[in-house]
Amino acid sequence: MTPKHFSRSEIESMEQRYRVKFINSLPGYKSLNLVGTISPDGEDNVSIVSTVTHFGSAPPLLGYVSRPATVDRHTLSNIEANGCYTLNQVSTAHFAAAHQTSARYPRETSEFDATGLERVFRDGIEAPFVASSPVQIHLEFRQKIDIELNGTVLILGEVKDVFVDPKLIETDGNIDLALAATAAGSGLDGYYAPELISRVSYAKPDQPVTDLATGEELWKSC
Amino acid sequence: MTPKHFSRSEIESMEQRYRVKFINSLPGYKSLNLVGTISPDGEDNVSIVSTVTHFGSAPPLLGYVSRPATVDRHTLSNIEANGCYTLNQVSTAHFAAAHQTSARYPRETSEFDATGLERVFRDGIEAPFVASSPVQIHLEFRQKIDIELNGTVLILGEVKDVFVDPKLIETDGNIDLALAATAAGSGLDGYYAPELISRVSYAKPDQPVTDLATGEELWKSC
C-alpha cells in the first residue's frame, strides 16, 4: 500500500467531528474501564474511560486522562474529595451499557441507576465496583497532574485491592483478557473482542521470539 | 462468578515476575506502537511501547510512559535531542519483530537492522517511520513530565503528519483498525487481533445505544 500524507494543516482543515474521530484513532486500540466513585453526599457515579495506562508495578500505579470541566467532572471531584475510586474492566457482555455512562446525565442521577449496571460495595472500600466487570480494582488517589498543553489532567492512583476470578489468572500471573471477555476500544465509539494471536517469550538479542504455549519460532535473526 | 480478593499485601507477597505480569494485566488491552527516533550522530532506533494514549485533539496530543534509565533510554535521549519522533501502529503481520525491538541491543545496533523492520525516511522529517505499519505518525516533542511517584516520565508530543492508506479511513474520519490489521496488547507479552463488535451511536440520556451500521438497539433505558 502507498500511504497518503495528511499534513497538520490538512488535519486542521478537516470538519471538526471528522478530525476528532481521526485523531482518536491514532493511538491504536484502547483500554476500556469504568471508573466508580462516590461523592461526600453518598451519591455514586460510574463513567467509562479509554485512557487507563500502566505507569508502574512497584508501587502498582495506574493513570488516566480526564477533561477537567466536562462530563468527567463528577468523577474527578469525587476522586479528589474521597481519595479512592475503582476501575472496572469493560466486558463484551455489558459494553453498550458501559458506553451509555458517557451520556451527560444530571448530577443527581447515578449512572448505575440510569444504565442498569449493577453496583457492588465491599467492606472497608468507599467506592462502588461494577459487579459484572471481570477485573475490579480499588485504587487510592495519589496525584493529579495538570497537562498545561491542553488543560486536561492526569489522575494517578495506587492499586490497593483487586477482585478477579482466579480461573482467569494464568500460572505466571498474567490475566487472560480473552477468557475474561474484556473489550478493547478504538476511536470514540468502537468496541472490539480481541482474539489471542500469541503470548511470546521475553526478547533477548540473538534469540528467536517463540510462542510461550507451542514453542513455535515467530521471529528469528536473519 | 465470585471474584477472589487480592489485597495489596497479598499482591506485594507475589513472586516478583508473577506480580509484574499480574499488575500489567490490570489496565486491560493496550495500544501497541513502535517509536522511531534518530540520534544526533544519525543512528536510528525503534522500540515498542504499550502506553501510547490520546491526550487531546486540539492540538492533537499523544503521550506515552517511559522508564528513564533502562531499555527506553536511547529512544528518550534521541527524542529530547532531536525534538521529533514517530509512532507507528504495530500490525498483526509484524508483531513478533516488533516485540523483538524490546531486546536490550547495544547502543550501536539499530533495532531496524537487528529485527528486519524496514525503515522509511520522508522529506523534511528527521525520524524514521516503520514501512510496514498501517498508521504512521510524525510528532513534535512538546513536554517531558517527571512522575515523581515512581521515577517514570510521560512524553507528550504533538501530531504533525500522519501517513495512512485512505482505504482505512471511514466516511466519518474513524480509522478502521481491524481492516488495518492493527494489533492490541495485554500484559507484558500478549498480542491480539481484535474483531469489531460494534461502532455505536453517541450516548445521550433517554436515547438507546444503537449500532451505527445496522441501527440495531444494543441498550435502552428500562
Structure notes:
2 copies of one chain form a homodimer. Chain A starts with a strand and ends with a strand. The first copy, chain A, is globular, with a radius of gyration of 20 Å. The longest helix of chain A is centred in the N-terminal third of the chain and has 10 residues, at 16-25. Chain A is built from 5 helices and 15 strands. The first copy, chain A, has helices at 8-12, 16-25, 73-82, 95-100, 111-115, and strands spanning 4-7, 30-31, 33-38, 44-49, 53-57, 60-66, 84-89, 119-122, 125-130, 135-147, 152-164, 184-186, 190-199, 209-210, 217-219. Chain A is an alpha+beta fold and 222 residues long. A 7-stranded antiparallel sheet of chain A has the order 4-3-7-10-11-6-5. The mean pLDDT of chain A is 95. Chains A and B meet through strand 1, helix 2, strand 2, strand 5 and strand 6 of A and strand 1, helix 2, strand 2, strand 5 and strand 6 of B. Strand 13 of chain A pairs antiparallel with strand 13 of chain B.
Mean pLDDT of chain A: 95
Helix content of chain A: 10-25%
Number of strands of chain A: 15
Tell me the number of helical segments of chain A per DSSP (H or I, 4 or more residues long): 5
Radius of gyration of chain A over all CA atoms, rounded: 20 Å
Termini distance of chain A? 25 Å
Largest interface: A-B, 123 and 124 residues
What is the helix/strand order of chain A? EHHEEEEEHEHHEEEEEEEE
Unreliably modeled segments of chain A: none
Oligomer: homodimer
Structural class of chain A: alpha+beta
Largest sheet of chain A: 7 strands, antiparallel
β content of chain A, as a range? 35-45%
Query: What would you call the shape of chain A?
Result: globular
Spatial strand arrangement across the major sheet of chain A: 4-3-7-10-11-6-5
